[in-house]
Amino acid sequence: MPFEDAPHLVFWEVTKACPLTCKHCRANAIDKPLPGELTTEEGKKLLEEISQFGKVVVVFTGGDPLSRDDIFELMDYAKSLGLIVSIAPAPSYRLNEDTIKNIKNSALYMSISLDGYKPETHDWLRGFGNYRYAINGIKLGLKYGIQVQVNTLVWKRSYEELPYIAKLLKDLGVKVWEVFFLIPVGRGTLELDIPREKYKDVIDFLVEVSRYNIVVRTVEAPFFRRAKLEYKEVKNELIRKLKELLGESKSPVDKSILPTRDGAGVIFISYNGDIYPSGFLPLKLGNVREDRLIDVYRNSELLKMIKAGKLKGKCGICAFSNICGGSRARAYAVYGDPLAEDPACPY
C-alpha cells in the first residue's frame, strides 16, 4: 500500500491570517490570527514529530504564512531537523526582495498562486493588485535560485487562458505547474467551477503541457495520472492554442506517477493543531496537542481504508484505483462519504 507508514507531503496551516480575501479560499482567511494558533514552541514540537516520518516535505501554508513573525524561525528549525522545507506565501506586498532572500535561506521550494493570464482575471479572484505581486514574487524567487512552483486554479475565467498561462510560465522559466480543481468548501463555490464536461479537455491539455519541459501536477484531479499513462494524441481548443503559442513538441509525455490522495501520502495540520486527511477534506482525525501525528497517520481507520483503496462506486472497481483513487475530498463534499466515487472523474 503506498504511503502506508509515512506521507510524502505534510501541510501545516501555520495561520489563518492573510492580507487577501480570495473568493474560493479553503482557509476563509482573516487579517488577524485566530485564538488557539499553535505557538512557536508547539510548532517546533510538531516539526519534531513530523521529522519522525523521515525526510518528508513540510509545506508551510495558510492563510499567509508570512503573517507569522516566527515563520523563518520555524522554517529554519524544520530544515535543521532534516525536513524538506516548502512555503506557500500569498501573492501580496510582503513578497519583496528581502523576504525572498530569507525564503531562499530557509526553504528549498516556494509555490505562488497565479490564477489567470490577464491581471484582471487573477485580481478578480484574489483581490485588486495581487497579479503584480504574484509575477514579481515568481521572478524574484527564480532570480535567487528558489525552486518555484506556480499554482493555478481552474475556474470559469481562467479556463480559456490556460494555454497563455503555460506560455507565460515557459517565458518566465518556471519548471513546475500545479493545477487545482475546485472542491465546494470555504468560498470555493460551484458558481466558479467549469462545466464537468470540460474537465477532460483540461486534463488532456495538461498532459500535452508536460511535453514542454514543465512538470505538471494536479490537486483534486488524480485522474490526470491515468490520462498520462494512457496518452494518445487528442485535439481540443486548449491544445490547439497551446501548440500555436509554443509550437509542436517532440518530447514524450512525462509518465512519472506519485500516487498521493487525500490522506494517503498527504496529511494536513490546521492552525490550531487539528489533523485532517487534507486541507480540502474536513474530517477531523485528532489534534497534535493531544495525539501523536505519526500514530494518527498510521492508525486512523479512515486513512487505512483510503490508503488500501477500499473505495466505493466506480473508484472501487477501477483498474487505476491504486494510482488515482479519485478525489476523496470531492466525494465527501458531494456525497458526504469520503470513500464514495469521485463524481468529477471523466472516465
Which helices and strands, and how do they pair?
Elements: E1 9-13, H1 40-51, E2 57-61, H2 71-80, E3 84-87, H3 97-106, E4 109-113, H4 119-126, H5 130-143, E5 147-154, H6 162-172, E6 176-181, H7 199-209, E7 215-219, H8 223-229, H9 237-246, E8 266-269, E9 274-276, E10 286-287, H10 293-299, H11 301-308, H12 313-317, H13 328-335
Parallel strand pairs: 1-2, 1-8, 2-3, 3-4, 4-5, 5-6, 6-7
Antiparallel strand pairs: 8-9, 9-10
Helix pairs in contact: 1-2, 2-3, 6-9, 7-8, 7-9
Describe the structure.
The structure is a single chain. By secondary structure, the protein is an alpha/beta fold. The protein has a single domain, classed as Alpha-Beta Barrel (TIM Barrel). It is built from 13 helices and 10 strands. It has a 10-stranded mixed sheet with strand order 7-6-5-4-3-2-1-8-9-10. The protein is globular and about 55 Å long. The mean pLDDT is 94. InterPro entries: Aldolase_TIM, Elp3/MiaA/NifB-like_rSAM, PqqE-like, Radical_SAM_PqqE_MftC-like, rSAM, rSAM_sf.
CATH superfamily: Aldolase class I
Beta-strand content bin = 5-15%
Helix-strand sequence: EHEHEHEHHEHEHEHHEEEHHHH
Radius of gyration: 19 Å
Domain Radical SAM core: 4-217
Protein name: Radical SAM core domain-containing protein
GO molecular function: 4 iron, 4 sulfur cluster binding; catalytic activity; metal ion binding
Keywords: 4Fe-4S, Iron, Iron-sulfur, Metal-binding, S-adenosyl-L-methionine
